[in-house]
Specification:
This is Os12g0183450 protein. Residues 126-145 are annotated as: Disordered. Residues 131-145 have a biased composition (Basic residues). It comes from Oryza sativa subsp. japonica (Rice). The protein has 145 residues and is mostly helical. The chain has one domain (4-125). It has helices at residues 4-23, 25-33, 37-56, 61-70, 78-89, 93-101, 107-123, 138-141. Helix 1 packs parallel to helix 5 and helix 3 runs antiparallel to helix 5 (78-89). 15% of the residues are buried.
């Protein structure tokens, strides 16, 4: 995994790319056409996933879930930022074929893992995720007349 400083620099670079890409459709096309840009984004996703998988492979599922729930770290990771940029780029079909045509170290496996994790967390009760149920305000309990 990246050290704290390396992770912060990577996040800063990813956020800069995202800011540029979200300014206009022209910028999105320019980022996509920049040699190595999409490859870099894909590599961040795959490397982040591989590092996290290696780190967590020796831990039980409950330990892993509890560490995610109890984490006070930023919820934004390089993988999430890179996936966000890739999504916002809306890559062209030839670019998607290039991404999928290469093994890319398990890019599809990474995407499947992300989708599975999102589905699992959305299906879990809020108290298991460490969230408190929302309390309804007094106004919402009182019927309008």
């Amino acid at each position: 995994m990246l050290s704290g400083g390396g992770r912060q620099r990577q996040l800063a670079a990813l956020r800069e790319i995202k800011a540029i890409a979200t300014e206009s459709d022209r910028n999105k096309r320019c980022v996509e056409a920049t040699p190595g840009a999409v490859k870099f984004l894909v590599s961040v996703v795959v490397q982040s996933h591989a590092a996290a998988s290696t780190y967590t492979s020796a831990r039980s599922d409950d330990d892993l879930l509890n560490s995610v729930i109890d984490s006070h770290m930023s919820t934004s990771s390089p993988k999430e930022e890179a996936l966000g940029v890739l999504y916002s780029l809306k890559p062209s079909e030839p670019t998607l074929r290039r991404i999928l045509g290469k093994d890319n170290g398990g890019f599809l496996d990474t995407l499947a893992s992300v989708l599975l994790l999102k589905a699992m967390t959305s299906a879990m009760p809020p108290e298991r995720l460490g969230c408190r149920p929302r309390r309804r305000s007094i106004r919402s309990r009182t019927p309008l007349r």
